[in-house]
Amino acid sequence: MSIKEQILQDIKIAMKQKDEFRRDSLRTLHSVLKQVEIDQRVELSDEIVLGILQKEIKKRNDAKDIYLQGGREDLAQKESMEAELIAVYLPKQLNDDELKLKLQDIKMQLGASSIKDLGNFMKAAKEQIGASADARRISEIAKAILA
């Protein structure tokens, strides 16, 4: 079952359980996926869906930070809960130690030696690691490794 199909299945379950928050959050997520499908005129693969899910989580986290700065803890909590809900559909996230090991391997493969190689390093890291880690975390650790 694809991720998109799983989201649709979970919407149905949330409707049966009368879980309004989960239902509405998943409907919003599904509408984003549907809009990308319509705009690009393609059938979404799991790879594309994973990228969209990561962008949606980033949006929720950014909104949460803005709400916290504005003193709106209630809205920040909602955004945080939505980000956690979306994260369920991503593959298991690497912890910092696992991520460092993978990035060290990539550094050895590329022969990267300085921060000047960061562009190529990040491209290779995103291809190999994929949705198993957030791009911000990859970037921070990559900069530390290359520095």
Features:
single chain; 147 residues; mainly alpha; Hypothetical Protein Yqey, Chain: A, domain1; Arc Repressor Mutant, subunit A; globular
**Kindly, what is the distance between the CA atoms of the first and last residues, rounded to a whole number of angstroms?**
42 Å
Task: Estimate nothing, just give the exact number of structural domains.
Answer: 2
| Unreliable residue stretches | none
The helix-strand sequence is HHHHHHH
Mean pLDDT, all residues: 90
What name goes with the CATH superfamily of the largest domain? Uncharacterised protein YqeY/AIM41, N-terminal domain
CATH architecture of the largest domain: Orthogonal Bundle
Quick gist of this model?
With 147 residues, the protein is mostly helical. It has helices spanning 3-16, 20-40, 46-69, 73-87, 96-110, 118-129, 135-146.
Structure description:
The protein is mostly helical and 147 residues long. It has 2 domains: 3-87, Hypothetical Protein Yqey, Chain: A, domain1 (Orthogonal Bundle); 96-146, Arc Repressor Mutant, subunit A, CATH 1.10.10.410. The protein is 77% helix and 0% strand. The chain contains 7 helices and no strands. It has helices at residues 3-16, 20-40, 46-69, 73-87, 96-110, 118-129, 135-146. α1 runs antiparallel to α2. 14% of the residues are buried.
